[in-house]
């Protein structure tokens, strides 16, 4: 089924018009003006990604999966344009209705005065964030080899091939397992150690400083340290295991054990960061609440669960997001030093490792760009879910 660009633009215009009319009506504006603005925004959004792609996903010779990707790009473009327009329109309408002609402190008399002040920041964002992002999007639609003089447009083939690639599906599942294991183990152990390090003991300040040191090391250094410790043939861990228990594990050459070695190294690397924040959070827990719980007969575990843990929820939520980002993006060096090539039978190959392997080692920039976008959208999607679900459970008050 061939879908005309005109039909897609009409669809976008209808969605945008409905959204802006609803926003204008709720904010006290004129719905007809919202209809017009929304129709323009929706039509523009429907073409945001499809014009650069030349509507290739809806060509007659394309498969149904290509059309599904095309509709995803159309809906994403509409959302990217209509959402900020709706938000800005609602803010402006509410401001006009509430403030009238009053001038509030801290605002500019003319909006263009802020532009020169924002120019340095906007320049840096354009050069080092927006342009590389757009270039990544462009490369993801190309058959591009690093150093080659020509590039061939392949539409969304770099994306559709991932859906039908069992190896990539395995990599995706493996990445989820390794990343979530790092987050859960790192935060659990960090909270336990921070609770003990917070106790009023002699030399506790020195002990706390030593606990934070691993965070100052790079993931590559963490990989080298664990390589010396967990080397199957001459590592310290296998030497002690063989001496005490009479067994030696293939920490780096056994597909069932190698992922756990990566998890242990990454947990050790990130624990210092978590411990630092948890100790700071424990210092802000009111002692009178804990004493009141003890007077009421609450035991140690009950006091921790009902008093300390809710007070730590803002820090815990922040650490979940930062640890998730670390687990997905910053484990490449650790994996590369401990298990070069992604481990035995690709058992430690994560999505980030595969992106660098394709782009840097295999010089396939098109596939690497497509997989980097998938990885980015995966992390962004999980972060949004965290903010929509866990963010509501965070307690910022006493």
Label this structure with key terms.
about 400 residues; mainly alpha; MetI-like fold; 2 domains; 17 helices; about 70% helix; globular
Topology, pairings included?
Elements: H1 5-26, H2 31-46, H3 50-53, H4 64-99, H5 114-140, E1 142-143, E2 152-153, H6 157-163, H7 166-197, H8 204-216, H9 219-230, H10 236-244, H11 258-283, H12 287-295, H13 300-311, H14 313-329, H15 332-338, H16 351-361, H17 365-389
Antiparallel strand pairs: 1-2
Helix pairs in contact: 1-2, 1-4, 2-4, 5-17, 7-11, 7-14, 8-11, 9-11, 9-15, 11-14, 12-13, 14-17, 16-17
Detailed description of the structure:
It is a single chain. The mean pLDDT is 88. It is globular and about 75 Å long. The chain has two domains: 1-101, no CATH class; 163-393, MetI-like fold (Orthogonal Bundle). The chain has a two-stranded antiparallel ribbon with strand order 1-2. 72% of the residues lie in helices and 1% in strands. It is built from 17 helices and two strands. It has 398 residues and is mainly α.
Question: What general form does the structure show?
Answer: globular
Largest sheet: 2 strands, antiparallel
Given this structure, which CATH class of the largest domain is correct? Mainly Alpha
Average pLDDT number: 88
* Structure class: mainly alpha
Strand numbers in spatial order across the main sheet: 1-2
CATH superfamily of the largest domain: MetI-like
Number of strands: 2
Query: What is the N-to-C succession of helices and strands?
Result: HHHHHEEHHHHHHHHHHHH
Distance linking N and C termini = 59 Å
